[in-house]
Design goal:
Shape: globular
Distance between the termini: 71 Å
Number of helices: 6
Radius of gyration: 20 Å
CATH topology: Chloramphenicol Acetyltransferase
Order of helices and strands: HHEHHEEEEEEHEEEH
CATH class: Alpha Beta
Strand content: 25-35%
Oligomer: single chain
CATH architecture: 2-Layer Sandwich
Largest sheet: 6 strands, mixed
Number of domains: 1
Number of strands: 10
Structural class: alpha+beta
């Protein structure tokens, strides 16, 4: 045995599952072919946390932070239709429907079921549909149509303690939002240091379809909605 072979770590190989092969192919194509750029904001989560606590204390239906974020994204996309777009075959395709994919981690990979027409659904309707789709994804009961037709993707790793990350765009979409953990951090208000709740949101953008100023305006409005969430329950 050569010295080089002797120094190699021990390993075993397995054939990659079909889902992993599909993910590998799509993510490689996305990174190679889509010019990504990234924008990050740090949102004040005090009011959103309080709203969720209030909603969840009043009944059996439980609202998740993802539910609230999906509704907030839909409202901001409604205000910025130029961001609900894809770049396909040298054309800009502007979507009239706001269909938001939610990234769901399952054994062996990742699925992105879609909640359709989020702008016309209430927070509770989004919550009910999201729970059904996540359960179907984790039980491997999603139909192909359940993951088709998305125009935007939300991915959240906050439950794992991840504070900030940059996601790879889910083609043919132009935007994906990566959300981190809600953190207790020192904040200065009126010259005094206190404790506040903050959450980082990073928007990955396809520069062929969306420019920096356009994406920044969308993200600024999304941050404003998250920080003043009364609009989410209208």
């Amino acid at each position: 045995m050569s010295d080089e072979k002797a120094l190699e770590p021990r390993f075993h190989e397995e054939s990659a599952p079909l889902l992993r092969k599909v993910i590998a192919k799509r993510m490689l194509e996305s990174k190679l072919n889509i010019p990504h750029f990234y924008l990050t904001v740090d949102a004040d989560m005090e009011k959103l946390v309080a709203l969720r606590n209030e909603l969840n204390s009043s009944g059996e239906r439980k609202i998740s932070f993802n539910d609230l974020l999906i509704k907030a994204i839909a409202i901001s996309l409604k205000k910025h239709p130029e961001c609900n777009v894809s770049y396909l075959d040298e054309k800009l395709r502007y979507y009239e429907d706001i269909n938001i994919c939610l990234a769901v981690a399952i054994e062996g990979g990742l699925l992105t079921p879609v909640i359709r027409n989020c702008d016309s659904k209430t927070l509770f309707e989004i919550s009910d549909e999201s729970k059904q789709l996540v359960e179907k994804a984790r039980n491997k009961r999603l139909r192909p149509r359940d993951s088709m037709g998305g125009t935007f993707t939300l991915t959240n790793l906050g439950m794992f303690g991840i504070e900030e990350f940059m996601a790879i765009i889910n083609p043919p979409q132009a935007l994906i939002l990566a959300v981190g953990a809600i953190r207790d951090v020192p904040v200065v208000e009126d010259g005094k240091v206190g404790v506040g709740k903050r959450m980082k949101m990073t928007l990955s953008c396809d520069h062929r379809a969306v420019d920096g100023a356009m994406a920044a305006a969308f993200l600024a409005d999304l941050k404003s909605i998250v920080e003043n969430p009364e609009e989410l329950v209208k």
